[in-house]
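ERR on first pass: missing label on line 2. Operator R.T. fixed the label and resubmitted. Corrected input:
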Amino acid sequence: MEEKGTLTVKRGLAQMLKGGVIMDVVTPEQAVIAQEAGAVAVMALERIPAEIRAQGGVARMSSLELIQGIMDAVTIPVMAKVRIGHFAEAQVLQSIGVDYIDESEVLTPADDLYHVDKHAFTTPFVCGARDLGEALRRVTEGAAMIRSKGEAGSGNIVEAVRHIRAIRDAISTLTTVPKEELVARARDIGASYELVREVAETGKLPVVLFCAGGVSTPADAALMMQLGAEGIFVGSGIFKSNDPKKFARAIVDATTHYNDPKIVADACRSLGMADAMPGIDLRKLPESELLATRGN
Amino acid sequence: MQSGAAQGEALNAKGSAKPNLVGVLALQGDVVEHVAALERAGAQAIAVKTPADLERVAALVIPGGESTTVVRLLDRFGLVEPIKARVRAGMPLWGTCMGMIVAAHDVAGMEQPTLDLIDITVRRNAFGRQNDSAEIPMVIPALGSQPFPAIFIRAPWIERVGPSVELLAERDGHGVMVRSGNVLGTSFHPELTSDPRVHAYFLTMVAEAAKHVGKASSAA
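pass 2 clean. output:
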């Protein structure tokens, strides 16, 4: 008897993406460039985070025509975003057959209290997290993959570093505390005791952990992989640079060989004088413009 | 190809590869799952990222992942010819899902380059997109009578098998497990289960190959 949409196959696709780079694309042509450069998947969306940030307004699920066009253009998995809590957008994406749904703080949240019940779907979900508690709450809701939130569209890696370190440090602490403390630890971080106990025993999240938000150079990718990310999302960093093909390849190479500085140096060198996307100093952004604080 | 094969034999004869060390190609994909499964099945395993790593191992697993990504990285980092030479000289190779696509003769309906190490034509994503990914208990005679928990993720099927290729399992009339001499391919992911039988099956292939190498070097 065949079973579809099980936790194993949902988490399994994320396992197949490990060590790879998932790239934001806004046209089928960009999707093809990403695939040829070695992307393991693409995120189909109408506007990349840097543009959403610049243009403001309500950011929603992308047009289905665009997503379908990208699904038809490439053979690698295609992901698409829904607003936090917007289960009807998620039902629509599942019905057209996208491979992964990103319940994303980059779009304007639809529900300020609740996330989507992701167990109700056959299509797997990836969700953002800033710390272990947030990551495990999303896993309890059914997320099959976790990514750092970072600060999307900023070209600034500092938030992604903070989130990956926070998750990693909290995991390593859990592996050392006495068993009798685990119930209180679970309560403190707002996560289920069962998941906290599992993390304490295995020393890792029950799902794959990627880095997202602010990666814009090969060295950024190598940094995040060395900090414990299992793969990289690049949003604005590729198609906001002035040579997307070169940037895409260089970030893929650096992600694979993140622990070999010579190869990361080659990847940096391959960019020549091409410019990375312009960045934003996050200390100068008003609180109301921060994306990572959306959803908890 | 001739010189490549000779180079591979030279490597084996020199004995620079450890007889029971299995490599898992680690350019991208579910590498640690394979390493852990091989260790559970009693082997020693390491990640292989470079031609130097490849020289250390006596067998290679190409894991699940994205074939377009890995084909590009194999070429970029100079692994295509060394892998071909070693496998043609007898090194056991097992490809799971993406790995089987990469090892195949060709990909149906696509111009995708492959290593051409087993005479099969595969069709990518043939069982559908992610919503059709599935867990299926399958009876595979080569593994015994107990059903094997096969996990298919955006899986390919085998559309054509050459005369030298043994079809070991089918799902709905499509090939999903094949062997030809020292090369094994599966559409599904035994590394995602706790059932060690396919890993154990591959390790018997590794042991057989080690005997041949032993005979060859004692004869020499």
